[in-house]
Amino acid sequence: MRNRNMALALVTLGLSLLLSGCVFRSVDELYAVPAPPQDYEALQACLSEVIAQGGEYAAPLSGDLIQSVQLQDLDGDGRQEAIAFFRISGDEKPMKIYIFRQSGSGYQTMSVIEGAATAINSIEYVQMDEDPFRELVVSWQMNTSRALSVYSVGNEVVELLRTDYDAYKLWDLDQDNRQELIIFRTPSESLIPRLELYDYEGTLTMAGAAALSNGGVIGGDGLAKSDYLKSVQTGYLSDRTPAIFATLSYAESGEITDIFVVQNGRPKNVTLDATTYESGETVRYYTQAPIMDVNGDGIMEVPQPVPMTEYRRTGNMVNFWLVRWRQFDSAGQAQVVMSTYYNGRDGWYFEIPEEWEKNLILSRSDLSGGGEQAVTFSYWSGVEGEDPLPFLTIYKLTGTNRVSRSKRAGRFNITPARADDSVIYAAEFRNGWDSGLSEEDVKTRFAVVRTDWYS
Known about the structure:
single chain, five-stranded antiparallel sheet, 12% helix, disordered N terminus
């Protein structure tokens, strides 16, 4: 019986190993590098030829695509071409972009794009016309400047455009299911920065230009700024019109945002005042709150910071700001959709009911040594001699004991999903005034600042 049980155990063990895919191998087999697929070996042979000629990999420096070798279907045939980036020192045009096409079981060189540059800043593959071939948008880094080129890839590579630039975006502004090229640059003939729109209508040509706010591009000395752009974002307006949001530095420490759309095939700055030549509706001096879709409705909101009332303020500095989030339409008209207290210092914001705005007082208390930052919301009648009535405190908790501090009596966790694991956000109701909020209301109105909104 014992031998029979042992035999059954061995059979069971053998079956379990087979079913789980386990097979006994030698140590050398277990640690051997898997053999690459045949098409990879063919591609590697092409890459090795370039390296043998003195080439070294030189991947793009920025953007979403920064690999030395990238796979893209450039001609729409369902097969991916390989795009490889090299530098061959000593050449008149040392930067090389090799495009390899699959041919049978191997690869062959389809074309080579060369640049008299020191590096490749970025590359994008976009659909700008009606044919199946995708265009390549390449940013070249020169010694002291940058150049932007657009290439058409067909049976041969053709350079459609080459220009200097300060910044650029690709976006379907006219809703024709094709990408337009939006360039910010300072033309030599005017020396004043502007936006230029390039569209493909048989060829890639400039469809028009639009002015930026004077105070955003011209400094106090009357000369054009070299670092006028702070950010360029794409998004939708309240009437679902695609738009470009260009945020510029303004005055000593402020910002101003110009909003551009396409009307009658040309770009237009819809927020620019025809009298002042500035988008005065978007000027702001509290700059921690970025342009973003704050309420998640697919429409971009532009912040309008307003100083909050402070109880016994000392000095001229504004400590707390109410941010009114406004949506613009394609006529440049604004509408407030939400108000928040935006706490850029601690990385969170809280939606403020409209009826609170006139009577809301905020105060701050941080533990020495860090680990706990607290903001308390209070109701104040505005009557001299009457103290504010605290009703809610929100905590940012860090450090090794953050969990235990979040569970202190009266506190409840309001940390949103996908928040940083090293931080806990908690809240606590105070007894000074009945706000009418529940714990669930606080959680709903609370949000964490996402860093990618700034990019």
